[in-house]
Amino acid sequence: MDNNFIYLDQDSDRVPSVPLEQSEDFSSLHETLIPTSDSQPLASKSTEGEFLQTIEASQNMANRLLGLGSENYQAGRYEAALDLFRQAYSLYQAAQDDLGQGRSLSSIGLTFYSLKHYSKAIEYSQSALVFAHHTCDRPSAVIILSTLGNAYRHLKEPDRAIEYQLQSLALAKDVGDRSGEMAALNNLGLAYKAVSQYEQAISYEQQSLLIARELGAQQVEEQILKNLGNASYALGDYASAIDYYQQRLALARLLQDSRMEAQILRNLGNAYYAVEDYTRSIECGEQRLKATRKLDDWRGEEQSLGSIGVAYDALGDYPSAITYYEQRLEIARMRNDVRVEEQVLGNLKVACFAIGDYIKAADYTSQRQNLSRK
User: Fold this and answer.
1) What is residue 371's predicted lDDT score, i.e. its pLDDT?
2) 329: Cα separation from own chain's centroid
């Protein structure tokens, strides 16, 4: 497997948000298995020359399948990639090519990781690691160890996660793999963040960021800035979080990634809200609202309206808050989102009560009660 694979992990885009946002829902995915070790040779071995030609043909085909699998993986077509890697493994196995078997198993493990099948990712990565050690394929071992560390982190085994990432880091340094070193440092940061050791997490992430900038890897730099911002936010260091989010925002605009920009503006607005800079929180909310409407992202639009309303509420500007809450309520009803509708009716009740409009407050209270009864 080549180093074009992105095996640097990233933190969630979400930080504690006002108002509360829905959690992500990952649907279940079908698992695809590789062939068993009973696979038969693809051609007759009538003569030594024919046998060697068959082996060479199998290896060439396996190499092509591995390359096609990599292309599908990069494009996010994980199930297709998994099938191609499985076919490549079968051919390498028939050719008794240990190096090829190890690399195809490593690719399968990484693909299972991307499909969020973490136990399967560990199973295949462990098998790949045996081949990597046997063939002295140290570059592949860097990636395999990283995949293992990330998978164990998701399975809530932080000690093992840290252990494998440290091994990946040491090996990457030893073979001069700067990309591998960058990934291991970032992933160590995430492992330490998972056990609430935020200072240690930030230290590793900062080292990773330096390498990303050295390599000119802007998309990776964006991921690391997100991880640094989220770790700083979790630590309560909102000033640093804002700084990292601002750097990430500038990069997103440079890359002309509107969806990424909207995600950053959400986190940045939340960070400004946390330091009670409600005016800037509103500015971020307005920019995010514009971006989500451009993207036709109704969920993002609804959340942006809620965040702006809450910030106006905090400023004591209840009429403005009501304006945004009413727009959010309209979207919630149009999308039949009862949870959001109930939340917004509660916000409207409080805001109307605050400006002395008791009739409207009572009306929103009644609507909310009727909704709850339904």
Assistant:
1) 87
2) 30
Would you say the C-alpha torsion 164, 169, 170, 175 has a positive or negative sign?
positive
Q: Which domains does the chain have, with CATH numbers?
A: 1-20+50-235 (1.25.40.10)
**What span, in angstroms and rounded, lies between the C-alpha atoms of 71 and 65?**
10
Say if residues 171 and 142 touch (Cβ distance below 8 Å): yes
pTM, rounded to two decimals: 0.80
Whether residue 16 is preceded by a cis peptide bond, meaning omega within 30 degrees of 0, is no
Q: Which two tokens stand for residue 235?
A: 């630590």
Handedness of CA 93, 96, 97, 101 (dihedral sign): positive
| Sign of the four-CA dihedral 157, 160, 162, 164 | negative
Start-to-end CA distance of the chain, whole Å, equals 55
At 30 the pLDDT is 29
Reported for 280-284, long-range contacts at CB under 8 A and 24+ positions apart, including other chains, are 281/307, 281/311, 282/308, 282/311, 282/312, 282/315
Helices (DSSP H) in 136-196: which residue ranges?
Answer: 138-154, 158-175, 178-194
Q: Report residue 217 as tokens.
A: 């890897």
Residue pLDDT, tens place only, 7-45 = 667 776 565 554 433 333 323 222 222 223 333 333 444
Q: Which residues of 255-285 are buried (b: 16+ CB within 10 A; e: fewer)?
A: eeebebbbbbbbbbbbbbbbeebbebbbbbb
**Distance in angstroms (rounded) separating the CA atoms of residues 273 and 307:** 9
Residues of the chain with pLDDT under 50: 1-4, 6, 18-45
- In terms of residues, how long is the chain? 374
The three-class DSSP label of residue 227 is helix
> Can you tell me which residue has the tokens 């082996």?
55
Q: CB–CB of 146/183 below 8 Å?
A: yes
